[in-house]
Every structure is written in structure tokens, then in C-alpha cells.
Design a protein that fits this description.
Blueprint: E1 2-6, H1 9-12, H2 16-31, E2 36-42, E3 55-60, H3 69-77, E4 82-87, E5 97-103, H4 108-111, H5 118-125, H6 128-134, E6 137-140, H7 143-153, E7 160-162, H8 176-186, E8 193-199, H9 205-218, E9 225-231, H10 236-244, E10 251-255, H11 262-267, E11 271-274, H12 283-290, E12 295-298, H13 303-307, E13 312-314, H14 319-331, H15 333-347, H16 352-368
Parallel strand pairs: 1-2, 1-4, 2-3, 4-5, 5-6, 6-7, 8-9, 8-11, 9-10, 11-12, 12-13
Helix pairs in contact: 2-16, 9-14, 12-15
């Protein structure tokens, strides 16, 4: 087979979709030395993501998320004579391959359109129904996302395959010396509560700030809250609320935190707080568990699937629920140790190799249909 994988987003915006594509490429290279793979990248991307000799770079000019993307990219792909084209960023091109596989990570823009900019809402919400109809098969990272496709868009169940994501092997409990070095590099205290993710409305950071404020009023010596991530869309209200709650001296914003230091950052935290309104998978919760850090997550969408019994579930609409869960972890060392061990065991169940095996089986299924 001649299989294309779209990683043009690597040139524009690193993030969860790019990490997914990178991990998939590496594991497919280990699984499949026979078929020809074409890594579709923007011509200006200086990094070539070619993990094995049977992977070739396919340069394109079409930018990601352009209003004419589906037609321009489809025209560019014709010269590669692809049997299958896989789109990890949900929206396929018009034509360009005999078969098309797409990965839909989540449908938060259908649940919460108010949490997106107008341009992003037009790109995803305006095309997703077309994309699901055009695709020969759809990959999703959770049962929650599969249910959304079936119930919100009427997608046939047999057209959707769940492939839970994996966790990078570098996410494991860090040695005390590595944790201390990370703290020194990033000016962190010896004890802190952690959030990791994009600063955007879907992550429900305002509820976390209000919960933290409730805790601070009851416990003046509360460890600080570290928020590691980057600014997404509509982030301004988050910083405004932090100021209005007079939390500026208690919050440590660490933007664009180096990826190589994330394992130590997780390992040094008392808990990870992820009160998102919606997550297609919730990779940061899995990374925290792999580092032995208990996660406190919302009881919505995919997060209960990922965390299982290895974390605490809260109502994302209720800051007091979140504050109570964090208080339990801060005060109960036995509970922290219980969730530490449960999280390590739970995280071992999620591997990128298994993710890639399912993707590879979908390719075979599509070709034989």
C-alpha cells in the first residue's frame, strides 16, 4: 500500500494532534517495514519526520486550516498516487487518494461553540459533518468521542474505531535530583498543585482558580498553583479573573514549558488538576499518572475512561467540588499513596504501540472493503 499521513500542522502549531502524529509515525515504522508511507509536510517545515527507510517526505504548499484547503491539498496529493490518506487533524481533502481515514480527537466545538474563536468554529464545526461523510473510516481516542459521533452526527457505528492513545515512555517518576533541578531551572517551590494545558475556556481554568481561592481562604499556607501551558483562544478572561480574585501572588504561570522538563514537573506536584468541560482523551491526566501524580479531573466526556479508579472525579460546574477533592489530597497522605500506585498501574495499560496496531488494522480494513 501507498499510505499518506498528514503532518502539516507540525509547521504551524505543536500540540496534542502533532504529538499523536509523531508517535504514530514512530510505531508504524516499527510495525510495518513493507508498505510505503508518505509523510505529508509543509514545504517550509525544516524538520523531516521520517522514522524508517520506507517513509518518504511529501512536500505540499497548502497551509493548514486554509479556507480552500480541502481542494488545494487534494490537487497536490494526486501526484503521489496514494491508496490511503490519513488525516490526524479531522478534516480530509477533496479527493487526493483512493481512500481516506480521519482521526477525530473530540467534538467540543459542537458542545461548546462559545469556547472558540469565530474562525476556528467555522473551520471545524462548519466542515465536520462533511468530513465524517467523506471519510472511509474514522478513528477516535475514546468511547465518549465515539458516542458523540453517533449521537450528534448520526455516524454509523461500524464506521468508527476507538483507539485509546498511549503515553510516551519518558513519562515516569523522576528521581529526586531531577525534580530539584527542574525546580531550580523554573523557579518552582518544593510543593505545588499543577495544571498542564492550553489556557482556553474549554479547560475550565476559572473553576480551578475559584476552587484554589476557596482553599486559600481556609488554608493561608496553601502551596501555590502552577499553570504550565500556552495561551490559546479567548484566554484574556482567565488572567482577568486571577487578578480580580487577588491571586497574582499565589499563581505561578509557566508558559511554553519545555517538553523535556514535563516529567519532572509532574513528578514534583502534589496533584494534577484538570477540570475541563470536555476532553476527547485527556493526555495530561495520563502523563501525570505515569509519573505517579494523582489526577483530579472532571466527571465528563472521556476523563473517567482514562483515569478509572486512579484519580478523583469532580463536577466541573462546581468549584467547591474541585476544592474538596484537592483538599483531600493535600491532607491525606495515605490517599495520595494509594492513587500514586493505582496511577502507575493504570498508565501501563496505555501504549502507543497498541494505538498504532489498531490504526494499522484500520488501514487493512479500508483497503479490503
Amino acid at each position: 500500500m501507498r499510505i499518506g499521513i498528514d503532518v502539516r500542522l507540525n509547521y504551524y502549531r505543536p500540540g496534542g494532534t502533532v504529538e499523536y502524529a509523531r508517535q504514530l509515525l514512530g510505531e508504524l515504522a516499527a510495525l510495518d517495514p513493507t508498505n510505503e508511507y508518505f509523510v505529508v509536510q509543509h514545504i517550509r517545515d525544516r524538520e523531516s519526520l521520517l522514522p524508517a527507510p520506507n517513509f518518504a517526505r511529501a512536500n505540499t504548499l497548502t497551509p493548514s486550516h486554509h479556507r480552500l484547503e480541502r481542494w488545494l491539498l487534494g490537487a497536490e496529493l494526486r501526484r503521489f498516487r496514494l491508496d490511503i490518506m490519513h488525516y490526524p487533524d479531522s478534516i480530509p481533502a477533496q479527493g487526493g487518494a483512493r481512500h481516506r481515514v480521519i482521526t477525530i480527537h473530540d467534538l467540543h466545538y459542537l458542545h461548546f461553540p462559545q469556547f472558540m474563536t469565530e474562525s476556528s468554529r467555522r473551520y471545524y464545526a462548519g466542515q465536520i459533518r462533511w468530513a465524517t461523510c467523506q471519510a472511509d473510516h474514522i478513528l477516535v481516542p475514546s468511547e465518549a468521542t465515539r458516542r458523540d459521533l453517533v449521537t450528534l452526527l448520526g455516524t454509523p457505528e461500524d464506521k468508527v474505531t476507538v483507539h485509546m492513545l498511549g503515553v510516551n515512555a519518558r513519562f515516569r517518576p523522576s528521581a529526586p535530583a531531577d525534580i530539584a533541578a527542574c525546580r531550580d531551572r523554573h523557579d518552582l517551590p518544593s510543593s505545588y498543585v499543577l495544571f498542564v494545558g492550553t489556557y482556553e475556556p474549554r479547560k475550565n481554568i476559572p473553576a480551578l482558580l475559584r476552587a484554589y481561592d476557596l482553599l486559600r481562604r481556609a488554608q493561608p499556607d496553601l502551596p501555590p498553583l502552577v499553570l504550565a501551558g500556552r495561551r490559546g483562544w479567548l484566554f484574556e478572561d482567565i488572567f482577568r479573573l486571577a487578578h480580580d480574585l487577588a491571586l497574582d501572588d499565589y499563581l505561578l504561570w509557566r508558559e511554553n514549558f519545555p517538553a523535556e522538563d514535563l516529567p519532572a514537573l509532574y513528578s514534583g506536584a502534589i496533584a494534577l488538576a484538570l477540570p475541563s468541560f470536555y476532553e476527547g482523551f485527556g493526555l495530561t491526566a495520563l502523563e501525570a499518572m505515569a509519573c505517579g501524580t494523582p489526577p483530579v479531573v472532571s466527571d465528563r466526556s472521556s476523563l473517567p475512561e482514562v483515569v478509572g479508579e486512579a484519580g478523583l472525579l469532580v463536577n466541573p460546574d462546581d468549584p467547591e467540588s474541585l476544592a474538596d477533592a484537592l483538599r483531600r489530597l493535600l491532607e491525606d497522605s495515605a490517599l495520595r499513596e494509594q492513587l500514586h500506585l493505582a496511577g502507575l498501574a493504570r498508565a501501563r495499560e496505555f501504549t502507543w504501540r497498541r494505538t498504532a496496531e489498531i490504526v494499522r488494522s484500520v488501514y487493512d480494513r479500508v483497503m479490503s472493503s
